[in-house]
Design a protein that fits this description.
518 residues, alpha+beta, 6-stranded mixed beta sheet, 4-stranded mixed beta sheet, globular
Amino acid sequence: MRERGRSVTQVDRIPRLDNCANLIPLSFNQEGLWFLNQLFPDRAYGIPGCIRLDGKLDPEALRNSLEAIIGRHAILRTKMVSTGGRPFQSISDSNDISLDVVDLEALPVSSRMEQVIEIATLDGVEPFNLEKGPLIRAKLLRLSSEDHVFLINLHHIIADGWSMGVLMRELDHFYSHYSQNHPTTLKTLPIQYSDYSEWQRDRLQGERLDRELKFWEKYLERLSDVDALATDEVTNERGENTAGHCPITIWEQSSNAARELARQANVTFFVVLCSAYQCFLNFHARQPDVVIGSSFANRQQPDLEDMIGFFVNTLPLRTSFAGNPTMRELLRRTQRSVLAVHEHQELPLARIVQHLRPTRSSERNPLFQVVFDLLTPDRNPAVFGYGLGAQVAERRQIGNLTATPIKVDGSDARFDLAVFLWDSPSAMAGVFEYDANRFSLSSVKKWVWQFQSTLDLLVDSPDMKLQDLYERLGAKDRHYSYQNRDTYTNRARQKLTLAKRKAVPLTPTPGNKTTSEG
């Protein structure tokens, strides 16, 4: 197996431990999230899914399928307990799950989906109790005999985006088994997440740990903390850390042109998109370096591919913009940066931050405030978490049922701005997820347009210098602002005209009738 040039050999295999202990150390990723949960216990840290199921559903088969998956993946029956101030994993032998069924069929048809969204939103922001568990919960909302909505929510400490692809595939497999008597062919997992966490702690120490820390020291030396995007004056009534969502679509023509440039420049498709994103950010910041966060699967070992667990590592990507490079040179710089970080993706972000000790704030992420991820539907299905705001129409099959995601807002904003794009052959669709306490929707809509414009400029003129790109983007930006100013002015005039058409008495007097026209 090869992944971006790195050979995965037998040496990398993780041993299965005959671990009968009740208390197992957390992985480094889990430990970092556990500490965050101690600081902010009212935050959900969940990965919620809201899925409409069309067809004749067997609730008992669905519950049996969930229990089969929980029995297969020990991490889904794990809770986090504290002993002597230290957190440990505690695995239960029981794979029971409560599948609450809520019957909405008595409501008027027009009100059912409104109630679904309300229930899903409340469930999505409901915190988990790490000590008591369970860290997975599910509900089934019945709209009619062949129309249901399935809600499932997992705490991030036991799962990640890749895990959701595993869960959906296994849900299809087991539901087909229990509802249609299809044979089950899944092999027993060679290891469990607890084996990985023990192996990771043994591996990341001594000389290997020193080598990883030295790389990150050099990679991030003299890094300045820059807010690329100006904060708006916004009033958000939905509470702190509320995420807003603005959809984005990159159509086939632009997508194909970006793929062709990637082929010609001998870089990955991700590098082209990431470079455009960094250019868009630096159009605002004008700094010699741009640092963003991006997710690395951190599943180099073959035994981890079909496991549910918290493996993903969101790491800083740093690209130099010094010297007014051409777009081709910028692509090469971004590619080198991506490959370097890929080779050092094992060390969790929490350990990097702990070692480097950057200036920290309880309300700000260390090292980077913005994120860019390119996802694939098979690995990261857009029915979970950040996919809820993406408006990605991804139909899947669960046995004889057709599963379609339902958009639900209400999630927490983990970063100032996070862009998630799902790659598909025809068009890329995704979402700009932003902190609704810092930015307005109108600003984010403009950023979506700026990112799309930057990508088009980069692809059309890869030999263009950076400053030339900024000048052309600035001209486009002024035109965009002018057009939107006219739109705003026209709307204001329409409102004023409508108001003038209505006779509104300032001081009604007895016997004086008033009329309202229009």
